[in-house]
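#random but structural
TW: two for the price of one
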Amino acid sequence: MIETQDPKGMSREKRLKSALLFTKAQLKNETDTLANLANISAVINMYMDDINWVGFYLMRSGELILGPFQGKPACNRIEIGSGVCGTSVKEGKTQLVDDVLSLDNHIACDSASRSELVVPIYRNGEIFGVLDIDSPSLARFTELEKQYMEELVALLQESL
């Protein structure tokens, strides 16, 4: 079992650093991808404030399929190019969206979500899936979260 710290009272950056450290420990101690994705989504949910959904969508047969997550039930399948997750895959880059309602192709799995951060995950140069994080607040995610979540995904990619 990996020891966790109580995130109450931590600065936003300290929370993100703790999530990154926990992820490193998780990936060092476990080789099963499903177990890692499940625990990493729980870690992000624990250490990142003001979010209402965090999880993974995995590439299967040309579309994104729901993987381990924390939050309300979500969309099971997302087409490439649809919504923030599908756009991240299509463009091959992180998407940081301040107001998801401003997007024509937004997929509203949870009507409370207002901003979103999605980081693509690669294995052997091919898309493996995405890390998706939603918040009920407008412009919740900054370059700080983007940087730390891209670092976290880089660690995950090394383990795949």
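TW: number two ↓
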Amino acid sequence: MKYLLIIPLFFIVTLSSAQPAGIMETCQNYFKDKYISDGQQYRALLAGEEVAEFHATFYKDNRYRLVACGARDNQTIVFNVYDKERNLLFSNKDYDNTPYWDLYFSSTTDCIIEARLDTNIQSSGIVYLLIGFEH
């Protein structure tokens, strides 16, 4: 009997740990050959109207790509980029929740990135945000 309990738990752990790897692979595909990840993986488990907040510094004269991915469909994530005074710089909601966007900064800027689920499509799930810079 003990062996029967251990085997199903092994499969549950294996499946749950495999899912984020697949999501990360999908996210990385948006970088292609032009962008390099900054090495950070910003993530949050969200439900309902919850909002994840991430902070990043973008440096002068650089082009960046923001990528938002989720377990279900990458267009279920809404992300907004604000400067430190909370002035909206970009929202992917204006572009059908596109999963990525390229941003250029003419001066070094501290930003707040908010990510949430489009609750019309998905009510809970994991959100990943990656930042890459052009090389």
